[in-house]
Amino acid sequence: MKKTIADNKYVELTYKIIDRKTNNILTTVEFPLGYVHGANEVLSPQVTAELEGKSVGDVIEVPIDCNQLYGPRDESLVFTDHIENVPEEYREIGTTIVMENAKGEARNFIVTRMDDQTLTVDGNNPLCGREVIFTLEILTVRDATDDEIEAGGPLEAAPDINGALKLPI
């Protein structure tokens, strides 16, 4: 009998994010994301509900309105400055820069544009303002160990596939 996704099951999956308007693939994650169903909030409630009862080999598509997760784009979080004002280690598109406001609250900004004279950073989540489809393929479903349940996921070290990009999956 096939094991199905339910609370306290260890699940591994891969996913891709597709922009609904353009059909462009925004992100593909081929390194399996492992988590314990019901013990970890790595997935949005909408995705978790869709995964419930699925098993290895199933592929599901979940439409997500990222406006509901992140709100609309806030253009006040986009800054352009002279490139000489930016340290060299941040002069690459895709680089994340952590900045603090006057209250000491940190926010991630991503370098989105650069030319010979200017550099632009954006503090909006790259998915905000978009409607996307998450396509998830289930690779593993098994009983989680007590340690995995307590940790909410795998115990071995894994690469940080999300970096500063918090995804709604």
Please outline the helices and strands.
Layout: E1 9-19, E2 25-36, H1 45-51, E3 59-65, H2 66-70, E4 78-82, E5 96-100, E6 106-114, E7 118-122, E8 131-143, H3 146-151
Report on this model:
With 169 residues, the protein is mainly beta. It has two domains: 9-68 and 127-151, Chitinase A, domain 3; 74-122, Thrombin, subunit H. Helix content is 11%, strand content 40%. It contains three helices and eight strands, in the order ββαβαβββββα. The radius of gyration is 19 Å and the shape is elongated. Mean pLDDT is 88; it is low at 158-169.
In short:
The chain is mainly beta.
Descriptive keywords:
mainly beta, 4-stranded antiparallel β-sheet, 11% helix, Thrombin, subunit H, 3 helices, disordered C terminus, 169 residues, 2 domains, Chitinase A, domain 3
* Percent helix range: 10-25%
Reading the helices and strands in chain order gives EEHEHEEEEEH
Largest sheet: 4 strands, antiparallel
Number of domains: 2
The class by helix and strand makeup works out as mainly beta
Radius of gyration computed on alpha carbons: 19 Å
CATH fold topology of the largest domain = Chitinase A, domain 3
Q: What CATH architecture label of the largest domain applies?
A: Roll
